[in-house]
């Protein structure tokens, strides 16, 4: 039975016990309304009686007068008391989870959820009570656990970090490695997944590379004439004065092919007869540069003339496998022995 109806029924019953002269002027007990109510058990009040209203449980006074008065016509004066629902504290989201809510006032409900890979331990919801406290504490989100993974034949797993026991949490992982000459085919990353299982391990298969090829102007160091297994290595070198371009050591890869094989690059000569050069930080006449040879990728500087400004400026040229073009701006001096102080390397340098 609804509370308002119960009050009305009580009022009718008590009115039946009173004589007709009194029922015309008394005020019935004010019913609960807009989260306000009258404390106490009195049912009827004489005209002129003033009563004090209170906020219902779970609500606090937020404005307006608490007083109402019984009028001569048996009605109460207008209510001005304002009551607002009590607030609870802002709820904390569980670590690795979240709290979902619209309001944090009396009777509001929050729900808790965990991220993928985590299990909720505790209540999944909480209600704001009339006391301004939440009915349930914030739950915990504990990670899903996996047992130790299956390791395929001829393989091992290198974990990301050390652990104890026989279980690991969601997100923990490592890497599968096959024992050479076996190579891993498939995903090599191992991971404890959100459903408590491990990602599928790779398959270890035998991988071989063909006998490594020779290189021009170079040689293989201590290489045997045979096939090589996965991860085996051979080393290359070059005959003088060639130099190696690339890594000296190459490795048999899981694809059955060798990593990039280096090449032997030829040296260069500086193709000028007169003038100054800069080589490895030293400035010298070309006639004094002996032997006239630089290795592949080395750089030599010559000087050009800015005729308009009458000043010299340096220009670099680089050896590329036996080729080292002279810069187009460079002019071979004519009076090498007569006017050496006029060379672009000797005069004022351009800013």
Describe the structure.
With 351 residues, the chain is mainly beta. The protein has 2 helices and 30 strands. Strands 28-27-29-30 form a 4-stranded antiparallel beta sheet, with no helix packed on it. The N terminus is likely disordered.
Task: Label the structural class.
Answer: mainly beta
User: In CATH, what is the class of the largest domain?
Assistant: Mainly Beta
Shape: elongated
Helix content: under 10%
Low-confidence stretches: 1-22
Oligomer: single chain
Number of domains: 5
- The residue-averaged pLDDT reads 90
Report the CATH architecture of the largest domain: Ribbon
Instruction: Find the count of extended strands (DSSP E, 2+ residues).
Output: 30
What is the radius of gyration?
47 Å
CATH topology value of the largest domain? Complement Module, domain 1
In CATH, the homologous superfamily of the largest domain goes by the name: Complement Module, domain 1
Looking at this protein, list some descriptive labels.
disordered N terminus, Complement Module, domain 1, three-stranded antiparallel beta sheet, 351 residues, mainly beta, 5% helix, 5 domains, single chain, 2 helices, four-stranded antiparallel beta sheet
């Amino acid at each position: 039975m609804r509370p308002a109806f119960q009050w009305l029924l009580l009022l009718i019953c008590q009115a039946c016990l009173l004589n007709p002269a009194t029922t015309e002027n008394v005020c019935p007990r004010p019913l609960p309304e807009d989260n306000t109510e009258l404390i106490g058990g009195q049912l009827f009040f004489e005209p002129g009686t003033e009563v004090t209203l209170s906020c219902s449980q779970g609500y606090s006074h937020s404005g307006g007068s608490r007083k109402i008065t019984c009028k001569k016509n048996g009605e109460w004066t207008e209510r001005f008391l304002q009551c607002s629902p009590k607030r609870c504290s802002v709820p904390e989201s569980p670590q690795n989870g979240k709290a979902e809510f619209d309001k944090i006032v009396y009777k509001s409900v929050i729900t808790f959820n965990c991220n993928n890979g985590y299990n909720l331990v505790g209540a999944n919801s909480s209600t704001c009570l009339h006391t301004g406290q939440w009915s349930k504490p914030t739950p915990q989100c504990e990670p899903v656990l996996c047992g130790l993974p299956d390791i395929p034949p001829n393989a091992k797993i290198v974990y990301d970090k050390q652990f104890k026991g026989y279980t690991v949490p969601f997100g923990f992982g490592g890497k599968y490695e096959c024992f050479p000459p076996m190579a891993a085919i498939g995903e090599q990353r191992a991971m404890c997944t959100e459903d408590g299982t491990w990602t599928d391990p790779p398959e270890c298969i035998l991988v071989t590379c063909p006998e490594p090829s020779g290189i021009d102007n170079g040689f293989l160091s201590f290489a045997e004439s045979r096939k090589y297994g996965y991860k085996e290595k051979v080393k290359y070198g070059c005959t003088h004065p060639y130099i190696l371009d690339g890594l000296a050591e190459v490795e048999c890869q899981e694809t059955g092919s060798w990593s990039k094989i280096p090449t032997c690059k030829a040296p260069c000569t500086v193709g000028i007869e007169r003038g100054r050069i800069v080589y490895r930080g030293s400035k010298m006449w070309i006639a004094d540069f002996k032997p006239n040879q630089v290795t592949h990728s080395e750089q030599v500087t010559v000087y050009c003339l800015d005729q308009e400004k009458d000043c010299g400026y340096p220009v670099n040229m680089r050896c590329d496998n036996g080729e080292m073009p002279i810069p187009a701006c460079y002019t071979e001096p004519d009076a090498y022995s007569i006017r050496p102080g006029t060379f672009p390397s000797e005069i004022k340098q351009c800013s």
